[in-house]
Records
---
Amino acid sequence: MNKPPALALATCAALLVSVAIAGDEAMTRPDRADLILHGGKVLTMLETEPAPAPTAVAVAAGRILFVGDDQGALALAAPGARVIDVKQGTIIPGFIDSHAHLYGLGKALAEVDLRGAATVEEAVARVAQAAAANPGRSWLEGRGWDQNDWPVKEYPHRKLLDRMARKRPILLRRVDGHAAWASTMALALAGVTAATPDPAGGSIVRDAQGEPTGVLIDNAVGLVTKVIPAPDEPEVRRRLRLAAEHCLRLGVTSVHDAGVSWERAQLMRRLVDEGALGVRVHAMYDDEAATLAAALQAGPWTSADGMLSLRAVKLYADGALGSRGALLLGDYSDQPGHRGLAVTNQDHLRWVMRTLGGAGFQVCTHAIGDGGNRLVLDLYEQVLGELKPRDARWRVEHAQILDPADIPRFAKLGVVAAMQPVHCTSDMDWADERLGEGRLKGAYAWQSLLKTGARLCYGTDFPVEKVEPLEGLYAARTRMHPDGTPIGGWRVEEAVDARTALWLYTAGGAWAGFAEDEVGVVAPGFRADLVVLNGDPVACEAAELLGMKAVCTVVAGQVVAGGL
Ligand SMILES: [Zn+2]
């Protein structure tokens, strides 16, 4: 049985919160609902679903007042309450993406999207359109072109870009991020000329006369990106808003943001004060000296409305599997003699764990390879043994490849594995080349971890992957690509059942972000973060998840996307 242990806790917490609120806010807490969702089916994600299933939720002042039948909910309506018939939709707790990069998503959304451009002319036309739509932007950036999609499968030339935007530099990344197409002005600003030598690990594509064509490969892209000015605050705000809106449209109401600077965190605080953050954010501070010093001085902090928590820190133990940066215990199967990289000095990791962990911060460490994971577990074991914190909930971000001997250590140490179902399906076609059959036993081992009693939470790592949580549920259940391959699923014994998948995307994430008394379930007293889906994500066939949609999203009792 793979039922996560937190279910029982969540139920108790619901009761406790109700009692606490009755005590604290008895004078002010409204007993009439300002928002009612009815005519659906509620999946509460409590330990046991009530039978018969509730059909309605009543919300008052941002919190859930009542979960039950339509009649009971409608009877609570205050005058002027918003009443929404969800038309047989399923009401679930808002999705919690437990590992993502909100600003990265906003930056990607702010760029010209060139994916799927069928010709080079179409790519140029999209850039021209963006140039016209954004007259104030000093640089135009884009991503997603692929010359293999074009009738003439050749790298494009800078002159095509010069023709339509002479006054502004342009940089467009290729779909894989390993090349970019720059305009003449961008090259000029970067000082790239025929005389510029290729940088180490990169190349400048040149024509027969030795002149740069505008296409830059790998590290040569950095020659241009380093001269792009940092965006000003209005642009950063715009990007964060784009990202939040995108999440809300898809039903994601909370994001665990894996690495923010002190400065970005302060901007997020201002957005909370203005009521403009949009999604709930559990932010992890990045591992920069200035960020850590300021965070230590400020101490762990959560906003009164629960929209933002600044009580975690993000570290890196190793790199990624695709680029063979993940630290392995043995050699890469496809590169003998190479075991990946320990990207951060161990003494520094230990120092941050002791110092920030000792000050009450949650430590979240990126580890992908079995070597990286062992390194982190060893350090966690040592430092947690010294600190003996009461409720640490330290996390390993990704925990992709585990030596089977290390799997039980997560539960034993109380360490959370923050995992991404879509990473499994993105990597499964080539993971065996890197790792060999023997090491796949502990790869994306959700079921093996759950069986040992470990805590997990699910997310996507967007914008590395798409935000779509329903695709994450599909990957978690099937370990197949959306096209249904490989038939039967890749190492399907590690897949999880439909309810567990949803739990890890809601209540499991809430626990991993210290918010299990606030969000993650649909129960009285909890904050009203809700999503209406036009299908039942637990009762449906896995393939149906791919056609399902969030039709209405509610954060803190406000309808923020869709609306029926
Ligand atoms: Zn990440």
Note: The longest helix spans residues 6-24.
---
Amino acid sequence: MENHREHNPRSPHCHHQCHSCFNMAALLLFVSVSKKCVKCKEAPAALVIRAGDAYCRLCFKDFFIHKFKAVLGKNRIIFPGEKVLLAVSGGPSSCSMLRQVQEGLSEKANKKLRFVPGVAFIDEGAAIGQSVEERQRTVAELQAVFQATGFPFYILPLEQVLDLPASVVATNPSPSEQPASAYKAAVDHFVETDGSNFPRPQEPKKTLLPRVQESHTLMLQQLLASVKTLTAREELLNTLRQHLLVHTARTEGYSKLMLGDSCTRLAVKLLTSISLGRGAQLAQDTGFSDSRYGDIILVRPMRDYSAKEVAYYNHLFTVPSVVIPSVDTKTVDKASIQRLTESFVTKLQTDFPSTVSTIYRTSEKLQTACRKRSGADGCDRCLLCLCSLDTAVEEPSAFQATLISDQLSGSKCLRGSAAETLRPEPGRPESPPPTAQCCSSAEGRGCGRAGSDGGCCSSAKLPETTGLKSLLCYSCALTVRDMSTVNHLPQYILSEAQRRQRRSQMREEISEFLLDDGDEGN
Ligand SMILES: [Zn+2]
Ligand SMILES: [Zn+2]
């Protein structure tokens, strides 16, 4: 099964250029020649998406493009003239999304798209230990793709996540509620003024891979190395990636972030989320739109396309995509929960072609149910994923069980992680070397609190590690539990954690002076 990733045409990671996919597409073109297209009933069918749905080349193109515009039109979330940042990973689905936007904005399109796009790509070469030359090569390849679109684009080395401000994880104001009529009014206005008041796509910026400091690459690698399991490492990478994209959107003036998750990808993500204890966040993780970042809304317009449809489209209309290895490339199925779920879904899909659509339809139902429940905004949010905290729960829950088992095995484990923090950290010159006399002071009361930025060693960091968990949702707390130390987390996360801890400490200190009115929901 070693070559599974490279050659499974049903894998959401498979690129259309791979040998077997190419063969499959060629075979289909050949096999179905005798059939007629179900749409125009004239041209010979070129491909079969589902049993009975045979399309000719042109009708398939219309169907594919129409679906993209329909999903945006139906959800009425992207306003005319709005700046939208497309997150393109180089994979087939996000590259196909980029093509859909190009098609939709072109002059000859009927029902033209009316937003102003930009493209962002995160170079994660550091996470998989690529050399600078390898990274430059990938970036050059993608740059050519982006340049051809004429859209402005941003090449972001993942190392940039280390320089993010704490505001990324602070709760941001949600955009003022737009009444339902606002969308129609905005469209009417756009049509009246012929779109002349709205920003035009700028000249594409020439951004080569920005120079990355070697120390930053080392710090990032140290952070990832401190995560003991692949499952947690993938989760952490997901989180960091999203923070970097949201920050870029914010600083460059984009208000929407478009993600290229296909319905196959989302079906895997949905089951993965459940396995990872992210049940409460399912709707946000997989829905069409996601407003956890407040002013920047994440949008998933590719969620109606299966990986197969995308592969056909990309093949038939030569959409370029770039094969980029990720942390789980060339790993076995059982290497992580994400990988295992993916192989489970894709294998099941082989024998039961409605697997993905069944899971996907479930996700749509979940969404409405969850939306109704989550009414209270401005509540406490998870420090990492920014979803509302799901940890204020009844006693018989997985979260409480984890807490109890933590308490029972606590003393031993914590000592273990304290030993970990005592180790010198070559990549972090700013953290002073731990001093021996400090640790000996019992209970850590005398020495800890004041030196918030690593003044003291184990005794100060112990409450920090345990305290961090109170700021996290159930699933993110599990991710952090799989880290040998939290000290390698980027500074913006640690600073925000300290700020929140100080605030809750203060709240505790003045609590006895406050009137207890009973409805202070935590
Ligand atoms: Zn046709
Ligand atoms: Zn979380």
Note: Residues 398-422 form the longest helix (25 residues).
---
Amino acid sequence: MHATDALREADRLMTVCNSCRYCEGLCAVFPAMEMRRTFASGDLNYLANLCHNCSACYYDCQFSPPHEFDVNVPRTLAQVRADSYKAYAWPPALAGAFDRNALTISVVTALCVALFILGFVAFQDPAVVFGTHTGPGAFYRLMPHNTMALLFGAAFLYAIVALGMGLRRFWRDIGEPVDTLREPQSLWQAMKDAGRLRYLDGGGVGCMNEDERPTDTRKLYHHLTFYGFLLCFAATSIATFYHYLVGREAPYAWYDVPVVLGVLGGLGLLIGPVGLLIAKRRRDRVVQDEVRFGMDVAFIAMLFLTSLTGLLLLVFRATPAMGVLLAVHLGVVFSLFITMPYSKFVHGLYRFAALVRYARERRMIAASD
Ligand code: SF4
Ligand code: SF4
């Protein structure tokens, strides 16, 4: 019935949990599970992407190891979740990027950085690459704005299409009609739940660590990372608006809106990923999908590098180091864009979609009561 061992194990565990139901107050997974009697692969992928891996249900469970039932919901759902990223990847020919994800992302990033540095050296006079450039348009003396916009526009468009196709495959597999994604109430509820990380709290006490003391640090660092990313995206969008509609070219002054937003977002993207990495190391390995540890670390490292290279460029933009720093930053950002559909980034999309479906199911049950 199921294609993988992880799905078969998830089916067994959900059947046990559906008889027990002790954990129904901990998160969205157990109430969603209770709406079903049997579990198709799409249902299990939905439940796995609804799980935030807080691990409370492992420590609360009377059937977890060494009990013979061997119930370990967080680890099994983490395995199913990671398999689902590969199963829904688009185009399917690139799904293998999820197998040795850390290696793939490292190689792509190193290549992109090397190509940008080589490109700068090949197409520019060394005096320009290693010279000092200030004032509006300084960056574009190293790379014409139109070339930059074309390259990054194409990479971003590709990422959006590939992510959209992946989301479409997920949505079809879990059996949801397209109309659900247009329901304002379900969307709004999912946005609130995702924005607050409502289900990353172990039922209210926080995430469990190796010492079995729950804390909220994972949630805090995730917030810093997520909102840091949004602020950086807002900074780039406003800079694009400045360039095309107001006719103002980068780099901008320290106090200008894109720089202020970029610095705040950049700090979030420095502190958040480091905190997430530390929190990850403090977690009990028994509840984690250790095989996919590299995928998590690679994505965290990419966000950290994007921010670090961006902030270094900001600090040293009026020095001869600007050319090399710009090439490195552009290489990292380009790599982040093209690897997004084949990295842990996809967890945000599938989890949000799962939350939309959950919000809809809850509303339908409330309406039928
Ligand atoms: S995880 Fe354990 S305690 Fe919780 S519902 Fe499942 S079987 Fe019951
Ligand atoms: S790990 Fe946390 S979010 Fe996942 S099923 Fe268990 S209690 Fe729910």
Note: Residues 113 and 328 are 5 Å apart (CA to CA).
---
Amino acid sequence: MSDYSTVLPEKATHRQTRTFNQQLVLRALYDDSPLSRADLARLTGLTRTSVSDLVGSLIDDGLIEEVGRGRSSGGKSPILLRVAPEGRLLIGLDLADSQFSGAVVNLRGDILRSMQLPLEGLDGDAAVELVFRLVDALRAGDRSPLLGIGIGAPGVIDTRSGTVRWSVNLEWADLPLGPLVESRYGVPVVVANDSHAAALAELTFYRRPRPNNLIVIKVGRGVGAGVILNGQLFQGDGYGAGEFGHVSPAHGGAPCRCGREGCLETRASMRALIDAARTVEPTITDEIGLAAAFHAGVTGVRQIVLDAARELGSAVGWLIGVLNVRHVLLVGPVAALGEDWLAEVRRSALSSVLGLLAQDTQIEFGHVHDDVVVLGASALLMEQQLGLGLAR
Ligand SMILES: [Zn+2]
């Protein structure tokens, strides 16, 4: 168990104090439940009376619930509490792939139902309409209390204002996506870059204990990283942190969708691998075909995939050299390529950095389900609305 007592801002009003203390209780329960009221008092540093009062109103609000009794240490056995998984529902969207995916998610990150709508080359306003259709369909007939909508989208996203500054795939530039969705549905909306969202999903739902620092690299249609530093998502000065898929180590090379040439994405993304593999094996048209040919040992395909893994690996080595982050996770459709691909990325990354850093760096697959962006967008919403999720 960890210590949840934190410092309250000076000159806090009564209401601020109460909200702050409520978040302490909620956070402690979210990370370590089930807990008794006595456990909560010890962990948060609040008095037993305050804890009972806060717990009472959180139960009334549907956010926490009693889950039986714990072991007695002499007197009456204590009632145990936890965050009510369905106390609020969230809608998470992933707009980073060739189809838009969405899901209704509970506070534990369980997916209650999900849906996909094919993008079919839509962009601009038509793609915004598709976002509305997806949310309408997910909302249909459901009256559960909705905490809000979290959106993971490709490109450079200003999460503060919910603006897509630039998304090459969708032809969105300075699009106020967050405000548009918010005014249509009347609930809070957050928008984040898809790789940033993936990093939040890993941090919030799958990593125990939570690492302070974490790099999550998403390889799918594109290549991007989400960087967690000191328990917080690091977005950079212009929200573009982790856009290393558009770094071109050597000038020149194949044209990239971003308008430049030779970006890492033109060689190491799944899209690039499928295109390259098709030149030796014309039947390969998608990720499944690529992975099957790779696993079957088709000579040319194996070479193409492993060369790309090495190239990605040296870029990962640069990240490790700059940040000295010990946990590096790879997520997204690329997980279909399996351990052979990962081993090559790892070998290449670790052989390109100082031995001292390499020896305690772990490069692994993350929680690779297709839902990682949906869950990450939900995690960001939970953090903003309830103070849950991110490291203390
Ligand atoms: Zn590029």
Note: The longest helix spans residues 299-323.
